[in-house]
């Protein structure tokens, strides 16, 4: 049995009805199988959706073969028709991070020939691994370019192509092992890549991409960044830290580094 993946058809579907096909207890949670779902299961670097099924809290969705399994706090009766509601804020947060990753990866590839060879999304932590080292100045240039793509509010589209047609596309990475019909996510006049994740319809919904730090990683670097609401709240929190330090040192925020150096010397 396979689960109909409604999120592939409409990434903005926040509520839907489904029939419970199976409900099994495992490790204190109930694994619920539906005939169709709009809950994205963790995969491709993107976090799982969460929400409610028939009023029952659903905390995690996972792909198991052709099925999407939902982990719930309580059992649901097999055969029941249930109303499902996504945690829309979580879905939007995840879409902002994932689409932002596409755009930032395209920026470093286009400007400096650096390839993204690893992507990880955690709660308030997003990283990409690049196969070559870049300087702080180069990453700042890539960050500026990526944000320009956001502010131009370009459309993001999803299409399906046979793997034999990939050679006609200008893509930053092509997985020659993929066969059959492939899902292609395209930013207008920008990034094109195969991807299973959910994305906003336009780049403007990402809001902002902010690189926080980078470190040496294998033969390249690991870049830590945040997008959208996560980037805004992170910047707001760090700004408050700087102001608090300034008040303790009795100086303006821009004087904090000098004040700390003086304290260190003393």
Give the topology string: H per helix, E per strand. Answer: EHEEEEEEEHEEHEEEEEHH
Largest sheet: 6 strands, antiparallel, barrel
Q: Whole-number average pLDDT?
A: 95
> Helical proportion?
25-40%
Low-confidence stretches: none
The fraction of residues in strands falls at 25-35%
Give the count of helical stretches: 5
Q: Could you say which structural class the secondary elements and strand pairing correspond to?
A: alpha+beta
Strand count: 15
Describe the structure.
It contains five helices and 15 strands. The chain has 266 residues and is α+β, with helices and mostly antiparallel strands. The strands form four sheets. A six-stranded antiparallel β-barrel has the order 2-3-7-6-5-8. A hairpin with a 2-residue loop joins strand 2 and strand 3. It is globular and about 70 Å long. The model has no long low-confidence stretch (mean pLDDT 95).
Distinctive features:
four-stranded antiparallel sheet, 266 residues, alpha+beta, six-stranded antiparallel beta barrel, 5 helices
Blueprint of the fold:
Layout: E1 4-5, H1 6-9, E2 15-26, E3 29-34, E4 36-37, E5 51-53, E6 56-64, E7 67-72, E8 81-86, H2 88-112, E9 116-122, E10 125-130, H3 136-151, E11 156-162, E12 181-187, E13 192-194, E14 209-217, E15 220-227, H4 228-249, H5 256-265
Parallel strand pairs: 1-4
Antiparallel strand pairs: 2-3, 2-8, 3-7, 5-6, 5-8, 6-7, 9-10, 10-15, 11-12, 12-13, 14-15
